């Protein structure tokens, strides 16, 4: 059996810092007993393109899926990613060979056309864009929910959140890895699988929202600030603990791979300036130089010092593998 633990969008810097201080003991044990490898990834330029490459082994240039919403030239509009064909994921290829897969929360994926095993998405938490709720068999998710409750709704919204909103999100993300581990351990104790692919997406969303607090609409109170400042590492710690629960359930001859096809680091993108940049060009004529509004204003502000956006840039990430 092979077990893939997807430590989704893990930051190398944060992982190394926590490893050095002993706060990721399960991951440290896997690294000690296995090998740590730096991956080449399409995430350098097309972050979301890494997921279908990871699931299928097909290069981005061949599968062409690089974002949840993409331009459909024939329809002349943007469409959700499921409108475009995807290469068969590894669990579909295994199903054709009569082999069984347990897959929980495959990020930016879709229900397989061919399947054999148990697949549950939107379980740790539900994001209507990247982790919609579905399961195969169709009642698998409902049966889990009857025992443990449904995964909370945590669809990501960018902007200027309040401290209260982020505290609520923190609670959901810290709890999510345990939910994934619970579903996995129950399934592994009940049935035999050839592949277990368990995705811990809380680390991804936490990297978007808790890298720093510069995006907050107001200064949080002392205790709230302390909780938010440690939220990212708290989520990473919860992922590590969930890994430990899963490893205790695996058969003794299982091979374990911990992977992150997308990393997390400081984002210096200026994509948020694009609408006004385009307006300055497409409205015609030279840029306006007076007043505070309009396209000219954004161009006058651009050279000034401007805080970096919260961390969302892709970076190469390890992680570890363990051979029995």
Please provide a written account of the structure.
This protein has 324 residues and is an alpha/beta fold. It has helices at 12-20, 25-33, 49-56, 60-63, 90-96, 140-148, 163-190, 202-210, 222-229, 231-249, 274-282, 294-301, and strands at residues 2-7, 35-36, 69-72, 77-80, 101-104, 117-121, 134-136, 195-200, 255-259, 265-267, 309-313, 319-322. Helix 11 (274-282) packs across helix 12 (294-301). It folds into two domains: 2-268 and 315-322, Alkaline Phosphatase, subunit A (3-Layer(aba) Sandwich), CATH 3.40.720.10; 269-307, no CATH class. Strand 3 and strand 4 form a beta hairpin. Mean pLDDT is 86; it is low at 285-319. The protein is globular. The chain has an eight-stranded mixed β-sheet with strand order 2-12-9-1-8-5-6-7, sandwiched between helices. The protein has a two-stranded antiparallel ribbon with strand order 3-4. Helices cover 39% and strands 16% of the residues. The protein has twelve helices and twelve strands.
